[in-house]
Amino acid sequence: MTTHNIVGFETGSTYEQINQGGTYSIQNSIKRTGSYALRTNPVTTAVGWIEIASHFNLTHGNMAEPTCYYRFYFRVDTLPASNSEEFCSIRSTTQGKLFLRITSAGVIQAYSNDGTTQLGSDGTTILATDGTWYCIEIKCGSSDPDVYEIKINNVVELTGTGNVSGGNNARLCLGKRTNRNGQSIDFYFDDVAIDNSAYPGPGAVGILLVDSDGTYTAWTIGAGGGSDWQNVDDIPPDAETTYLKSTLIIGDASTVGFKSTTEGGVSGSIYAVKHSGIYRRASSGATMALRFRSGGNDYDSTNLFTGSSFDHYAQIYATDPATGVAWTLSAIDAVESGAVEKTTGAGDESKMDAVYLMVDYLVASGAGARSYGIIF
User: The CATH number of 3-201 is which of 2.60.120.200, 2.40.440.10, 1.20.200.10, 3.40.440.10?
Assistant: First the structure.
């Protein structure tokens, strides 16, 4: 099992996406959970979309999965006035594989890799424009023919086989990437999860905010003031207004702690935890690593060459690395995240602009098992 990504747009920035275009925004007026969600609202023939790929191993990169499972929450505020328009597509590195449209009647359609050949018939569930968030889940293969499946609120809406070839699953595209019928739309997306082995299931991607210095505090304040953690707690990230910088001493590290799951509204069962940060190098001649601390143990990533511009680096743990089993809330309450100097170059310090802890969770039903017993 590989949990490729969990995205709640809670950095309030574009750092959680790998590509984008047209009319879209990461906004905080309408959201399902947390403080931010994606909006795509292009007019007539215009487009608006973003792509999300894998953040399983440090950099935001393409997946390479023959079959993949996707979840996101979808709110429709403006349907196409006639015909249909895209709201989602599954893509390889070179082309689309499976396209989903919504019609003026509010039902979903599936299209093959050419974007114009409909697979099966229209769905029957009407997605209302009344502020409802719908849990959309997708399974997509990579052959001709191969399986596709779309669920709405955990109920299969469309399923079958069709031409979804063109390469392995690489990216999830949310929004109207291709104009099909010249219609204005207004869509919202939140709480994304991607897995290579099974549906992630319903959930919410919450964020636990930085609130304390961690075990390691060797890095120094490059700009800002106060405690170290107060220089890496910004949402959205503030570039070099406040940041920490490394010391050019191999092994020196800085980590931060986070607000508790209770304070962050995280409860129930945990699907995955993602620790991440916004980092860059003064130049590009040395390496650092992300450091994650759980159960009193340090877990360092592979050595990482960051670029000269700030970027988002992350790792995802579906289970607690300290125990090898499912996360507990108390274990999450004790984790830390940050970075450690690995190799150095003259004047080539790392800069830490922001640190985040994302948690995909589902409020428990009954005895506390992960369940579908919530309002979607």
Answer: 2.60.120.200
Number of H helices, E strands in the chain: 2, 27
pLDDT above 70 for 79: yes
| SS3 (DSSP) at 75 | strand
Express each pLDDT in 351-360 by its tens digit: 999 999 999 9
Residue 330 CB coordination number (10 Å) = 9
pLDDT digits (tens, 9 = 90+) for 121-151: 999 999 999 999 999 999 999 999 999 999 9
DSSP string, 348-367: --EEEEEEEEEEEEE--BTT
Q: CB-based burial of residue 212 (10 Å sphere; 0-12 exposed, 13-18 middle, 19+ buried)? A: middle
Which CATH topology does 207-362 take? Jelly Rolls (2.60.120)
* Neighbouring C-beta atoms of residue 362, cutoff 10 Å: 21
The tokens describing 366, both together, are 């009954």
In sequence order, which residues have a C-beta less than 8 Å from that of residue 86 and are 6 or more positions away?
99, 100, 101, 115, 175, 176, 177, 178, 180
Burial of 140 (0-12, 13-18, 19+ CB in 10 A): buried
pTM of the shown model = 0.95
β-bridge partners, 204 = 361
Residue span(s) of the chain under CATH 2.60.120.200 come to 3-201
